[in-house]
Design goal:
By secondary structure, the chain is mainly alpha-helical. Helices cover 82% and strands 0% of the residues. It contains four helices and no strands. It starts with 5 loop residues before the first helix and ends in a 5-residue tail after the last helix. 9% of the residues are buried.
């Protein structure tokens, strides 16, 4: 560094700073992938790429998010339906038939979408 001028030193420091930022970003994306927050992972990876943080690991996590997005949505929907079913089952067991019928009618009206 002793033989470099001020501009070269600034450029070198910017490169080091960018590498540290990318390392931090990759750790954030990795944590999102590990916790299976796929939609947030896709959103964050896209945001970082739009902000010109280009790295092979960021692209890797974006591809993983896109590949697993449908699985994640299906799992979320399945979990919602299972929760709804368990609630209706508990209402049924407690002899609250009118609420069960009303909720089932709402589900049928919505065409099974929840």
């Amino acid at each position: 560094m002793a033989w470099k001028n001020e501009q070269e030193i600034k450029e070198e420091l910017e490169k080091i700073k960018k590498k540290k930022q990318i390392k931090h970003i990759v750790s954030i994306l990795e944590n999102l992938y590990i916790t299976w927050e796929i939609l947030k992972l896709k959103e964050e990876a896209t945001r970082f790429i739009k902000d010109w943080y280009i790295d092979a690991k960021i692209n890797y996590y974006l591809k993983k998010a896109i590949a697993n997005e449908t699985k994640y949505k299906i799992a979320q929907k399945s979990q919602k339906l299972e929760n709804r079913y368990n609630t209706l089952l508990e209402l049924y067991k407690s002899w609250d038939y009118t609420t069960v019928i009303k909720e089932c009618q709402d589900i049928i009206i919505k065409n099974g979408e929840y």
